[in-house]
Specification:
With 101 residues, the chain is mainly β. The protein is built from one helix and seven strands, in the order E-E-E-E-H-E-E-E. The protein has one domain (3-95): Nucleic acid-binding proteins (OB fold (Dihydrolipoamide Acetyltransferase, E2P)). A hairpin with a 2-residue loop joins strand 5 (66-77) and strand 6 (80-84).
Amino acid sequence: MKISEIRLGMSGITVEGKVTDKSEARRVQTRYGQHSVCDETLEDETGDIKLSLWEEAIDMVNIGDKIRVDGAYVTEFRNQLQLNMPRSGKLEVTEKNILEI
């Protein structure tokens, strides 16, 4: 699926793109306790979307990496669409940015 085709409420999404931005990880309180979360921007030739990554997935991905996300769902946060990964979702780095220092 292309990023431009993503709509609010969709689930089970598979999308590929390049990570163009990554925020600092922060600790948040959830109903399951405290966890680390990071927001990234995923981009393809049709657009970009925010992607929230949790815990160990944060360190898997760097700016410039190409990734594939399977099983994601779409929410809206601050009037912006956002991809979220459920526990059953899969994240794969398909191409590492070798220039990352």
